Amino acid sequence: MLLPVRCFTCGAPLGHLWDEFKRRVQAGENPSKVLDDLGVHRYCCRSVMISSVSYIEEIALYYIVRARRLRAEGEVR
Ligand SMILES: [Zn+2]
């Protein structure tokens, strides 16, 4: 999933907050405090930010492995 651009419920823009939220949470800060600092107070927006999982990097690894496998087998796509 890509980053959440807008809240799915109220439509508030959230995409500009995603990088800072992700960076600070990965650094060990409490997600609730980070959302307070970023001014995300509605529970619908908070749930979008907290529940979003960025798995595009993981999915991309499968495509890389698949491409290598196809190349090794002689199929080029
Ligand atoms: Zn919202």
What does it look like?
The protein is mainly α. It has one domain (15-73): Homeodomain-like (Arc Repressor Mutant, subunit A). The chain contains four helices and no strands. The protein has helices at 15-26, 31-38, 43-51, 56-73. Helix 1 (15-26) runs antiparallel to helix 2. It is elongated, with a radius of gyration of 17 Å. The chain starts with 14 loop residues before the first helix and ends with a helix. The model has no long low-confidence stretch (mean pLDDT 89). Zinc ion (ZN) binds next to helix 3.
What's the helix and strand layout?
Elements: H1 15-26, H2 31-38, H3 43-51, H4 56-73
Helix pairs in contact: 1-2
The structure holds zinc ion.
CATH architecture: Orthogonal Bundle
What name does CATH use for the topology?
Arc Repressor Mutant, subunit A
| Oligomeric state of shown chains | single chain
Q: What is the chain-wise order of helices and strands?
A: HHHH
| Average predicted local confidence, pLDDT | 89
Catalogue the ligands: zinc ion
**Inertia-based shape:** elongated
Biggest sheet: strands, sense, closure? none
Q: Rounded to an integer, what's the Rg over CA atoms?
A: 17 Å
The top level CATH class name: Mainly Alpha
Number of strands: 0
Class by helix and strand content? mainly alpha
Number of domains in the coordinates? 1
User: Could you tell me how far the N terminus lies from the C terminus, measured between alpha carbons in angstroms?
Assistant: 24 Å
Helix content: 55-70%
Low-pLDDT runs of 5+ residues are none
* CATH H level, superfamily name: Homeodomain-like
Annotation field: number of helices? 4
Strand content: under 5%
